[in-house]
UniProtKB/TrEMBL annotation:
This is GNAT family N-acetyltransferase. Residues 5-150 form the N-acetyltransferase domain. Pfam families: Acetyltransf_17, Acetyltransf_9, SCP2_2. InterPro entries: Acetyltransf_17, Acetyltransferase_Eis, Acyl_CoA_acyltransferase, Eis_dom, GNAT_dom, SCP2_sterol-bd_dom_sf. GO terms for molecular function: aminoglycoside N-acetyltransferase activity. Coiled coil: none annotated. One of its GO terms (biological process) is aminoglycoside antibiotic catabolic process. SUPFAM superfamilies: Acyl-CoA N-acyltransferases (Nat) (SSF55729), SCP-like (SSF55718). It comes from the Bacteria.
């Protein structure tokens, strides 16, 4: 069946069948969605079809950007992959993802991330696990309270505050690795909405300038099982973080549990009793390059790191990535140049993904069979891993 599966962009006429396929895969409400009459900006929908025109699978390329050490890198983040039950195990998903990668490459994407329901098929297509998005629960009563700081103002937010909220998020996210920029067509509505996209918004200001915020959903009830879900909580100062944690603590009488996803090592995490945290949900996420030259050139690199390394890369789904390359890193930038001949280091695309995202070391990638060294030290490819581990906070 994979040999006859034809992959193309979905038209509006295909969307009902594609939705039905997704409903069967993910258990959507059987009530059909409103009829879509215009193409949505910021994404590309792909479908795989048999010779009769029947849809066999679908996938969506989300036109995101990801922050990588101060630079916004164009991404093709993958969502809504579903294959009809009768077509599973026959190469339809591989054909879909191959077509998606080619389309993403043609439109200029550099990297790709996804949240898998099952990992093995995506590994077979070159993605690998780069991190885990963990949602934790904390007892509200365990959160520290403190005397409010006189130089800070705490108030409820309104839709008019959403642009300032987006700017504060960008201030904190841009120097990290992997976080979405939350810019572009898929996010424009979040900063121009007439209503808040969550139940409440708590702001902390200093001299009229936003220095922290928490966006939250109240949930239902006020008994022992009540949960306050914090969609975002960020601060640019320790005092602002303490104010926000104090506000969350004030919910203890009606919401015994606070649920949130933390930004590793940030100001808010430094104020929380993490020993009391219990994991609510753990969602692995996967990464791969769409175009290795763009992925290397578009991102920022540690300013103190310098060096060169040559390696041969194999990418069965994206042949433009396959070949022998020289990586040169210096002064906060890097370049990948195609060279002739072979190299002593042979890297798979999964190995590239693990190193680029900072999820592993070259020695560990070699131990996993994703890097083969012929008379060379595999640790030379730690140059590709410079910059630290990536993280995702937005599920898609």
């Amino acid at each position: 069946m994979s040999a006859t599966a034809h992959v193309r962009e979905l038209t509006l006429d295909n969307l009902t069948d594609a939705w039905q396929l997704g409903r069967h895969a993910f258990g959507f409400d059987p009530q059909p969605p409103p009829q879509v009459t215009v193409a949505l900006p910021g994404l590309t929908r792909y479908g795989a079809f048999d010779a009769t025109g029947r849809i066999l699978g679908r996938a969506v390329d989300l036109h995101h950007e990801q922050w990588w050490s101060g630079r916004a890198v164009p991404a093709a983040d993958v969502a809504s992959v579903a294959v009809a039950p009768e077509a599973r195990g026959r190469g339809v998903a591989r054909a879909l993802l191959t077509g998606l990668l080619r389309g993403a490459h043609d439109r200029g994407a550099a990297v790709s991330a996804l949240f898998p329901t099952v990992i093995a098929p995506y590994r077979a297509c070159g993605w690998d696990v780069a991190g885990v998005m963990r949602t934790v629960d904390l007892p509200t009563v365990a959160l520290p309270r403190h005397r409010p700081a006189a130089h800070l103002t705490v108030r409820g937010g309104t839709p008019a505050d959403l642009p300032a909220v987006a700017a504060l998020y960008e201030r904190l996210a841009r120097d990290r690795r992997g976080l979405l920029t939350r810019r572009g067509a898929l996010f424009d509505a979040h900063t121009t909405a007439d209503t808040l996209p969550f139940d409440g918004l708590t702001l902390v200001e200093e001299d009229g300038r936003l220095v922290g915020y928490a966006a939250w959903d109240r949930g239902r009830g006020y008994g022992d099982d009540a949960v306050l879900t914090v969609e975002d909580v960020f601060a640019t100062t320790a005092d602002a973080a303490r104010e926000l944690v104090g506000v969350l603590a004030s919910w203890h009488s009606v919401a015994p549990k606070v649920r949130l996803c933390l930004l590793d090592g940030d100001a808010v995490s430094a104020q929380l009793p993490l020993e009391a945290a219990r994991e609510h949900e753990s969602q692995p996420w996967m990464h791969r390059p769409v175009d290795v030259t763009r992925a290397v050139a578009a991102r920022g690199w540690p300013a103190h790191v310098r060096g060169t390394v040559e390696f041969h890369l194999t990418d069965p789904l994206a042949d433009w990535n396959t070949g022998t390359w020289r990586l040169a890193v210096a002064d906060g930038s890097a370049e990948l140049t195609r060279i002739s001949g072979d190299a002593d280091l042979h890297l798979t695309v999964r190995g590239f993904a693990l190193l680029y995202s900072g999820a592993s070391t070259a020695a560990s990638v070699a131990d996993a069979g994703l890097l083969h060294a012929v008379g060379a030290d595999p640790r030379a490819l730690d140059l590709l891993a410079a910059g630290g581990a990536a993280q995702l906070l937005d599920y898609f």
